[in-house]
């Protein structure tokens, strides 16, 4: 008698899936692919502008550019996807693409910190308001910095280049050409009707970026309302003593949400008072920082450029390697050190101001490295 | 109440037996001395240790000898004999040595279903007890033991709760994240109510009037270790949860996933630690 009841429960669960959300997801995915195609189409004309106008000539410049770009758009994913289209257009090389994507994560990690600043300015206790943002920021920085070295080695040695055929065989390219070429052609023709050739292509690129930004926001809205407290995760408190478990949870949830800040916000219902244990949050962010590249990986498949796919994969693998080394060999000292730095930065307005100057100054300085 | 005092003949184990004897006599507990020999050749050493242990008690205590792996034998005896408390020493292995050779104390703290008192560092006087509470039923169990031991030995008790939380959302009640125990109790926050309830439990157990609540903020293990060292406590009591039953063959997963901070606290604190485990 137990079988029918199991099936009844499953059917009820399926019925609970919000059809509206499914529709939003399908639309956002369509727009995401369209956006990448538009960016790809418009990027070629930007090559001289990126190389000469913005002077993005080496990996350091690309790192700074991706970093500052993410500050401006308050998001990392559109910048990472844009980096792939620049690579496809030949504006930046593999190392530059890798660095620009890493820079996008540096810039994106500012979002949570920015929210903390807003609350601190509204009169909340400074040290507590900015702690979460600083932590998210520092965990990202301390993982990605060594990951840049690992990634450099992986790219130079070509250790993951054997994955080219896998990407090439994905078959997505030809299918998307059929569906999206007419739309991209239409956009090109429309802009060309009103603007000179170069400006028309820039317009297509701008449109692509706008659609990409919108589609990523739309994907966030298409996520099911995950009530972790009421789900199987309700008992997580007992599991979350182990950093590796929380790490896997962060990676798993972010592979669905594709955004570290969205993943973090999903944890809010776990605590009625909006708290999270210090012990849990660091490995969670570490895990989230790896799978946040899922949308960039999809973008690389949409572009149908095997090199781009490998670059994103190198990004994920290098971040994963550094995270696992820290988790397995030096987690407790790392945890203490990061929390100590968070405390010191949040201690005074002066420290916070110096920190802000540094995180704005470094990417600007990177743009001038020759 | 019944207490199991374990020795393998080493000075550290005998130090643990002395510490256990102090509690056994204060609590008028029925004592069983368990000698565990790693091999039949080591039995003579263990028997000599048991003979020395007998001198600690006015009346002859029960004696048992087992041969085999220390942790497994102690747990088997503890579970078969309906004991209320087991006492064993710790070599204090840390880092790589702990990883390679393991730790009997760690296994006892993790797998024994009866409260396990792991003796490290000095002894055998108990003037100050630190009862650490996690803010739930485990903390209350730890407090009950703290209250009992404090009553038996007329010791001071500090009830410690560590808030390791940080604000995740703008709606978080930020003020609670840096308040003292007194402020938390006055404002009736969750931590404050829990501390008040725990102090009430201590009174119910007949603990001396000299008890105080304390709230610290930071990483749980680090703050417990800091308080234990700074406050000069003679005994640290912690509550720990019992891992759920798992199917045969999945014990490794249970060991890995359902860990808690008990083992880390034992490793970090150079004081006797009583782990009160239960579902």
Description:
The complex is a heterodimer of chains A (370) and B (279). Chain A is mainly alpha-helical. Chain A has 19 helices and one strand. Chain A has helices at residues 2-16, 19-43, 47-53, 59-73, 77-89, 94-108, 110-121, 126-157, 164-168, 172-194, 197-222, 236-239, 243-257, 260-266, 278-291, 294-303, 306-329, 331-347, 349-366; one strand spanning 275-277. In chain A, helix 2 (19-43) packs antiparallel against helix 11. The longest helix of chain A is centred in the middle third of the chain and has 32 residues, at 126-157. In chain A, 47% of the residues are buried. Chain B is α/β, with parallel strands linked by helices. Chain B contains eleven helices and eleven strands. A ten-stranded mixed beta sheet of chain B has the order 3-2-1-4-5-11-10-6-7-9, sandwiched between helices. The radius of gyration of chain B is 19 Å and the shape is globular. The model of chain B has no long low-confidence stretch (mean pLDDT 83). Chain A binds chain B through residues 115, 119, 124-125, 127-129, 131-132, 135, 238-239, 241-242, 244-245, 264-265, 267-268, 271, 273-279, 281, 335-336, 339, and chain B through 164-178, 190, 218-220, 222, 241, 256-261.
User: Secondary-structure element sequence of chain A?
Assistant: HHHHHHHHHHHHHHEHHHHH
End-to-end distance of chain B: 21 Å
Helix and strand pattern of chain B? EHEHEHEHHEEHEEHHEHEHHE
Query: Any low-confidence stretches of chain A, pLDDT <50, length ≥5?
Result: 227-236
Number of strands of chain B: 11
Biggest interface: chains and residue counts? A-B, 32 and 27 residues
Rg calculated over all Cα atoms of chain B: 19 Å
Instruction: Give the tally of β-strands of chain A.
Output: 1
Oligomeric state of the chains in view: heterodimer
Report the principal-axis shape of chain B: globular
Q: Radius of gyration of chain A over alpha carbons?
A: 21 Å
Which residues of chain B form runs of ≥5 with pLDDT under 50?
none
Q: Number of helical segments of chain A?
A: 19
Please count the helical segments of chain B. Answer: 11
Alpha-carbon distance between the termini of chain A? 73 Å
Strand content of chain B: 15-25%
Helix content of chain B: 40-55%
Strand order, biggest sheet of chain B? 3-2-1-4-5-11-10-6-7-9
Percent of sequence in beta strands of chain A: under 5%
Helix content of chain A: over 70%
Could you say which overall geometry of chain A the principal axes of the C-alpha atoms support?
globular
């Amino acid at each position: 008698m137990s079988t029918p009841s199991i099936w009844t429960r499953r059917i009820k669960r399926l019925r609970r899936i919000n059809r509206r959300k499914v529709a939003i997801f399908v639309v956002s995915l369509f727009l995401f692919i369209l956006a990448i195609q538009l960016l790809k189409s418009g990027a070629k004309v930007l090559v001289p502008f990126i190389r000469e106008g913005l002077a993005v000539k080496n990996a350091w410049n690309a790192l700074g550019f991706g970093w500052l770009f993410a500050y401006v758009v308050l998001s990392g994913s559109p910048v990472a996807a844009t980096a792939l289209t620049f690579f496809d257009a030949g504006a930046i090389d593999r190392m530059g693409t890798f660095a620009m994507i890493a820079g996008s994560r540096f810039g994106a990690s500012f979002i949570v910190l920015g929210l903390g600043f807003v609350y601190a300015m509204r009169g909340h206790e400074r040290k507590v308001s900015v702690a979460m943002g600083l932590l998210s920021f520092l965990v990202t920085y301390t993982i990605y910095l060594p990951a840049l070295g690992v990634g450099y080695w992986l790219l130079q040695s070509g250790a993951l280049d054997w994955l080219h055929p896998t990407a090439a065989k994905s078959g997505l390219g030809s299918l998307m050409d059929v569906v999206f070429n007419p739309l991209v052609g239409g956009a090109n023709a429309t802009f060309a009707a009103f603007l000179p050739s170069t400006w028309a292509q820039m317009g297509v690129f701008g449109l692509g970026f706008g659609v990409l930004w919108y589609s990523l926001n739309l994907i966030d809205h298409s996520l099911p309302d995950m009530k972790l407290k009421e789900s199987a995760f309700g008992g997580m408190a007992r599991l979350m003593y182990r950093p590796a478990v929380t790490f896997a949870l962060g990676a798993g949830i972010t592979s669905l949400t594709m955004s570290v800040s969205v993943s973090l916000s999903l944890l809010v219902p776990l605590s009625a008072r909006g708290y999270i244990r210090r012990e849990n949050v660091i490995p969670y962010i570490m895990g989230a920082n790896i799978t946040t590249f899922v949308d960039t990986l999809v973008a690389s498949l949409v572009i149908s450029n095997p090199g781009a796919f490998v670059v994103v994969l190198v990004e994920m693998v290098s971040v994963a390697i550094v995270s696992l080394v820290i988790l397995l060999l030096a987690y407790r000292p790392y945890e203490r050190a990061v929390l100590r730095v968070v405390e010191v930065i949040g201690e005074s307005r002066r420290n916070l101001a110096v920190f802000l100057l540094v995180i704005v100054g470094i990417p600007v300085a990177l743009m001038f490295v020759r | 109440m019944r207490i199991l005092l374990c020795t393998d003949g080493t000075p550290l184990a005998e130090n643990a037996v002395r510490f256990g004897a102090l509690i056994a006599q204060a609590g008028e507990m029925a004592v069983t001395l368990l000698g565990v020999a790693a091999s039949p050749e080591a039995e003579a050493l263990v028997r000599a240790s048991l003979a020395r242990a007998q001198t600690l008690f006015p009346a002859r205590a029960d004696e048992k000898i087992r041969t085999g792996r220390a942790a497994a034998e102690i747990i088997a005896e503890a579970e078969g004999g309906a004991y209320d408390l087991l006492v064993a020493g710790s070599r204090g292995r840390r880092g790589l040595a702990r990883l390679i050779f393991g730790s009997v104390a760690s296994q006892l703290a993790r797998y024994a279903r009866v409260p396990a008192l792991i003796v490290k560092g000095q002894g055998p006087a108990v003037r100050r007890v630190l009862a650490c509470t996690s803010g739930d039923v485990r903390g209350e169990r730890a407090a009950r033991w703290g209250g009992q031991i404090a009553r038996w030995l007329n010791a001071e008790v500090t009830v410690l709760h560590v808030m390791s939380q940080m604000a995740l959302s703008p709606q978080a009640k930020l003020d609670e994240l840096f308040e003292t125990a007194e402020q938390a109790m006055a404002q009736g926050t969750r931590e404050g109510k829990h501390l008040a309830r725990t102090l009430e439990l201590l009174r119910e157990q007949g603990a001396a009037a000299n008890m105080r609540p304390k709230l610290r903020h930071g990483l749980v293990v680090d703050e417990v270790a800091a308080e234990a060292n700074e406050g000069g406590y003679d005994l640290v009591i912690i509550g720990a949860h019992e891992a759920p039953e798992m199917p045969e063959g999945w014990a490794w997963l249970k060991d890995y996933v359902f860990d808690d901070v008990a083992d880390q606290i034992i490793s970090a604190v150079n004081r006797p630690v009583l782990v009160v485990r239960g579902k």
